[in-house]
Amino acid sequence: MKHQLTTLLLSVALPTVLTAQNPIIGGQFTADPTARVFNQKVYLYPSHDIVPPAGQRADWFCMADYHVFSSDNLTQWTDHGTIISQENVPWGKADGYSMWAPDCVCKDGRYYFYFPNAPKEGRGFAIGVATADSPEGPFVLEPEPIKGVMGIDPCVLVDDDGQSYIYWSGMGIRGARLAPDMKSLAGESAVMEGLPEGFKEGPFAFRRGDWYYLTFPWVRVEKGTETLAYAMSRSPLGPWQFKGIFMAEHPNGCWTNHHSLVEYQGQWYLFYHRNDYSPGDDKRRSACIERVTFRPDGTISEVSETMRGVGISRATDRIDIDRYSALSPRASIDTIDTLNRFRGWSVSLPEKGSWVRYDDVDFSPVTDGYLVVSAKAGANTELCVREKSPKGKVLARVQLTVQSEQGPFRRDMRNQWLTLTAPLEYTPKGTCDLCITCEGAGVDVDWLQFKNRPKYFSPAAASAGKPDERGFIRRWMLLEPIRQDIRSNVIFTNTWLREAFYKTWFKDQMTILPKDGQKVKAGKQTLAWHALDSELFNVKLFRFAERWGEQTYGSLFWGVTLIDCPEEMAGVRLAVGSNGASIWWLNGEEVLLLEGDRRMVEDDGMSARLTLKKGINVLRCAVINGPGLSDMCIRFVDEQGVPVTNFEVTTK
User: Fold this and answer.
1) Chain Cα centroid distance, residue 529
2) Are residues 442 and 471 in the same domain?
3) Are residues 472 and 445 in the same domain?
4) 32 catalytic per annotation
């Protein structure tokens, strides 16, 4: 009797890219991970645990659909969305929530997806097939399950000679030849012989060289939890010789494990699951990966669970360092939000000298970078990001000033998550290990990331410049920011600002004509001048501080530039905008003060009429800001408001 195939029509969504270590997929549960290599990528076909809806057992497995994920580096995973849902399976129970561990293989350019489900009629499980022309679908469902197969956890082995075999769990672990159509058996099934006593499920078979491996979860002690065990044979259907376990029981007591093994780019990997995102519920599990090695005789070396997992993390991706490679004594891992565990974890470094190491970070994408870190502390402290070890070369230092009594406002950000930036003192080449160290009072760290700055500045050219076509002056000698303790800009009154701007911060501040790289002492800070051309009409002082300063917020900026006029220009006005308050001097005379909590607006402030003398005119400014993103724009305009451009700009 011929059957008409059912085509599964799926809602199409844009793929989502997820970046993670162990567990490798966040935001959803991903149990029973079957990994396959197709088209130079690893494709992952897990089951999809969900919280049981009303009417379903709250303490049991609950799966309603399947997603497929792919990656070419094992750290960034693309979710291609739902490929099969229970309500679309023609022979399945639409509300069975029994879509357990699947598999997918490719033969002759066609992809075959095998999955268990509760049938509409009868009890137990049947195993169905769906086919597609690509590994992410769309898949076409067969109208009936495979005859002669009753059970769960299908696995298919396509042997080198083209013959395919199917294995599943049902009254023991069973196996059979598949017919050439990959949708029916080519004979009777048989129980796989030579396996140990005790509960077994979830078979995964593969071939390596002349050996066939049958791997499976196994409860080795009465009332215990599952290990991962294996047997070997010279034949795909046995007889099998039991070899032992290659992963022990989960340390946290999670009852199940389920897995696959795959070779990718010359390295073997174990995909398995544990319940990191649901520590109180071992029926909601998440996929993880570890490296696998084989002994010379073909047996599998035992694999240990890690937080770090595998793969090389790009420095420009967010790195969850709580997925560590090594951790100092007394350091610990804590859940960020017990009500939403998909938010992940943080690492607690409780005292000076405590550290966490995260291996294999690729710095090749970092060009002109800076560090971003999410951290919190109960007192002012410092952390360092180092190369390789707790004594390694410092990449960046992060000051956590969470409490301050100075100034008119009290700052108290204790035990609050802060996103902080810091300049890089050193950028490694290639791939290296990172070590984060606590340099003072204890600190908690959630994640870190190295970002490349957009090109806001370039070194000032040797030749004299000109204003841009709109008259804005982009060439400046800028001093690295002077640290200020300002929590709010409401204090920027005329009196307060004049006291701040006219305070002597560094030697000769009103007369200095600095050279590029020249250093000055401002209190306890040693600061350098930088001769720069701004890429934008508004000079991004905040970005300048990110690149060269010790801090970005709560800063006082000083700038100097030279206006070289071919002739005297009378009746011009200085037109200025600044984020933060600012003051402007021309040839030593104050010409403009912008007070209050300003936002950067073109020509926000206008000076009285000025005269630019023939030759060099010194334009000097100071900009102060608390929590804002400091920037400024400056130009001269004539009596009609037309920009003045017939002069040169230099810093020499």
Assistant:
1) 35
2) no
3) no
4) yes
